[in-house]
Design a protein that fits this description.
Length: 123
């Protein structure tokens, strides 16, 4: 499956952005999806994941209560709604697809990766 992330940009602290990840090539609904991010000079880290039918979601503690992951299988798209953004949320955000059902915080369980979209939060 090919993944194309979009929606990044520059936003002030406290603002919101919605990232999108469009999938093509295989049956999107067969894949759990995740969002990861990598800040400058840091390792890539888990942000959120959603199961293949959307009924299971989980989040990193750092974003819980501020970010929401969702998916629209009819549109082959997964979203990450980011509210109350903080400067420490600045990173390149990647979407990823997993053959697993529920998704995972472990990046090694993902089989497909998008190219990343940059989110910059100014203070």
């Amino acid at each position: 499956v090919q993944l194309q992330a979009s929606g990044g940009g520059l936003v002030q602290a406290g603002g919101s952005l919605r990232l999108s990840c469009a999938a093509s090539g295989r049956t999107f609904s067969n894949y759990a999806m995740g969002w990861f991010r990598q800040a400058p000079g840091k390792e890539r880290e888990f942000v959120a994941a959603i199961g293949w039918r959307g009924g299971i979601t989980f989040y990193a503690d750092a974003v819980k209560g501020r970010f929401t992951i969702s998916r629209d299988n009819a549109k082959n798209t997964v979203y990450l709604q980011m509210n109350s953004l903080k400067p420490e949320d600045t990173a390149v955000y990647y979407c990823a697809g997993s053959r697993g059902i529920a998704g995972s915080p472990n990046e090694y369980e993902y089989d497909y990766w998008g190219q990343g979209t940059l989110v910059t939060v100014s203070s």
